[in-house]
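Re: weekly structure request thread

Next one in the queue (883 aa):
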Amino acid sequence: MKALTITGLAAFLAASASAQSSAMIYSVATSIPWSPKAPSSVDQSVVYNDTYYLSDRTNAGVHVVSLINNTQTKLITGFSTGLVNGKLSSSISGPDGMIVLPSRNELWVGDGDGTIKIIDLFKSTIIASINTTSTKRADEFAYDPTNNIVVVTNPNEKPPFVSVISATKRTVLGQIMFPNVTELEQPAFNPADGLFYVSVPSSGAHPGGSICTLNIAGLSITHTYPIPDCVPAGITFGPKNHLFIGCSASQITDYGYAASYIMDVATGKIISNISSLAGIDQVAYDSTANLFYASAYQNLAGGGNPMPQIAVVNASSGVLVQTLVTDNVTAHSVAVDEKNGLMLVPIQKQGIIVYDLKAGIQGSGNLSPSMTGTGAKPSASVKTSGGAVISAVQALMTTVIIGIAGIGCLSEADTDNAPSISTFASAEGGGPMTVAGAEGAGPSTPEPKKRALFRQPLALQWFENGVLKKRSDEERQAGRFELFLDLLYVAILASFADGLAEHPSGIQVVKYILILAPSWHIWSDLRELMNSFYNDDLGQRILILWIMAVLVVYGNNAVVVDEDITAMRATVGAYMTARLTANTAHLVYSFSSYHHRAQQRLWFVCSFFALLIYIPLYFESLSLRSKIAVAAVGIIVEECLWVFCYSPIAKRIMRAKYTTAADIGHEIDRFAAFYIIVLGEFLYAIIVGHPAAAGFNVRLLRAIWTLIIAFCFNWLYVHNDGSLNYEHAIRHNIITAFTWVMMHLPLVASMLAGGHVAAASTKTDELEDPELWLLCGGLGIGIICLYVIAMLHRSDDPPGTSMLPKHLRLLLRPVIGIIIICLPLSPDLGATAFLSIIMALIVVCVVWENVTSLQCGAKFWESWENTGYPEDYKVTPREDGKC
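Done, posted below.
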């Protein structure tokens, strides 16, 4: 082992110089420039799914910054700007406070006109607005995820009040008034007791400030905890029932000292006193690092000189770990990225500064001075956390650990000529700490992964304690090999529909359903696997190819499954092999990534035993009627088990911290692409074999009618419910999500059956009764399925937005569906007449929905503007004088 180097000793001594420092040290990783311009007024910020959001009043928008590539991707505008004497006024300008609702993938942002703007985090657009009835800003938020209640402060009203809002209905349930109070600051929700707490800077009864608890059901204040001469601003909950209270600049100017506190709300006692820390606005908590963060942008040094800083506090001991110099303009906002160990602070002249917890002990900020305890005014309610001696011992032990870690890392760096990363546990129980290597080393850049034929399957998204986490915010579309699988799968389904169209009868319909549903299960298995673990390596490509080969066996034998026991055995064997292969992949993946482990293994066990139901189908002695019953039972059991394994019920039973989540954008894209390929079967038969040749004839008319029918069905699917703003069924709730997915099976089955007959009618002038029922039944059920799917989406349009409300706009779908189903009961009509009526009905439905979905007062024809060249446009003549 090398002897102690000079740099190692310097690092040790530097760490020892601060009795309050710990192994958790931040340094600057990067800065993100302002766009479009540097602000002079910002408000709160938050990090969610590797994305940073910041309220910017100057630019009247919310900055959206990707923390994957450290670039601003968008500025979400649409907020009000209020001026007083020609200057921006924070009390009537927005955006202001903000909060993420993870289960809804929404960002709620307060605005200066008293409204709350709701931003869809998938689209990064404002989708709804809630009026709190205030004429001034809706400011800061707290959220109860269990009861879906949001509270927001309206601090500038006289008297100020808290608005209580239903997150699901987006309606104001009531207001809690605060009489004899000057203003309100941050609310916070405590999951330990299920109560909301609000920071009250000053009141007639408690001039130095207080913390109040709220009775949501009774719309009243439950209890008030006085805070000794604090004038509190930001508050946030940390471990247990510990509430971090950041005192504002008024504490310094009005009471002559600076301190912030940690309160145990179970007892109402102050358990920690962080001296020399005030002038705070927003605060935050990192549960992984077990640290509090305070944006002390109005902090003052001795003599009243500005000393703006970000303070990092150990959440268990109340020890001040580190301070970093900021500014006193925009740095009253702080947000933390727990997953990646980042802290973000907006600084007007530098941009959005990203501090990295893993960047090492050579922090760019100043280590905090030793806390003497003389700056804080004690009160009768103050209780020390073990006394000054224990705090000093804790700080000394932490300092020794830093020094030893620094020496070890520097020695390794000297040996290997590269910085070393050393991870060890926090003495405070605060989770992993990371210290990096050599002196002057900035943020370490991870070595890029080299290509590999077989990559580690990693979950792309998951729920962690009910909060959605994503490995990347980039929108993912269907992969090329997924679409290649779709082509084979649709060909198989078309073969099934062709068999049904050739021999339409009740027993053939039953057969069609019983052989189509299992193949749908195979497709769904691969869809879910690719949705959660898509890495497009050699292993996954081989998996897709293998299952496609098994599907070829299935597709060729299933059509004659009722005619030959060999075909029956080949069909059942292929199905069981395909499902067992996909589910074994789930099992294998559960070892490579813990995020879906519990439900993947539950699904593997349940699906394995469900497959045993099909074993009797191998026996020739079993009657066809019995085999139909066995197949039907197996399909239903498997569908029910799938719903159970991935439902919230299973998650609650297993008490799993990490559970499955779907990439909703990819899921929607997969179903939409598959649906389009299904509609392609309408068109294939009207072209191949040139059935409508030659010249202009009635067969050509039926081919064009079939094209229009397919086009309109695609139009209706894309149109959804016609709302300007809506929440997709998968995002709405678990019932609508499962229903939306499962409704695609009858939709696809009916479209294939009806569309195949429609296309086949090109070749014949007359259709037999069974064919008519198959045509009309398939298309009629298809449009009814489209009605159900559209109704599952939740419209976010305020009443009166469109010409007609949603249920009236969509009313024609079921009505026309029933009419089409009943068409075979009409007097004898030829194939041309039937297709003409069906086409006309569906076109009427499309026109009706598009017209009634227009906004009230909308014009049919938009006037053309700016069609001429600009006035300064000139044609430059050629040098040779020619035109």
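The two ends are 84 Å apart (CA to CA). DSSP finds 18 helices and 37 strands in the chain.
Next request, please.
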